[in-house]
Amino acid sequence: MYKAIAEERAATERAIAGIVGDDDARRLVELGESLRIVEVLPEKPATAIERALALMETREGRATLATRTWDTV
Question: The pTM is what?
Fold first, then answer.
C-alpha cells in the first residue's frame, strides 16, 4: 500500500474512532475500501492550445508548462 494511502486510511480511522470507537472504526474503514472511487482522467486535449490551457489549471501544470515550448506542449 502506498504511504499516502496508508496515512489517509489511518487518519480516517482515527477520526471515525472518535465517533464510534476503535473496533467499529476499523470495521467501517475496511468496508469503505471496497467503495474507493478510482479517478478517471479525461482524454488528452487535441490541440497544443487546449493542452496548454489544461496545464494552466494546476500549479504543477503551470510549472511544467514553464519548461516547455510549443513543439513539446
Answer: 0.44
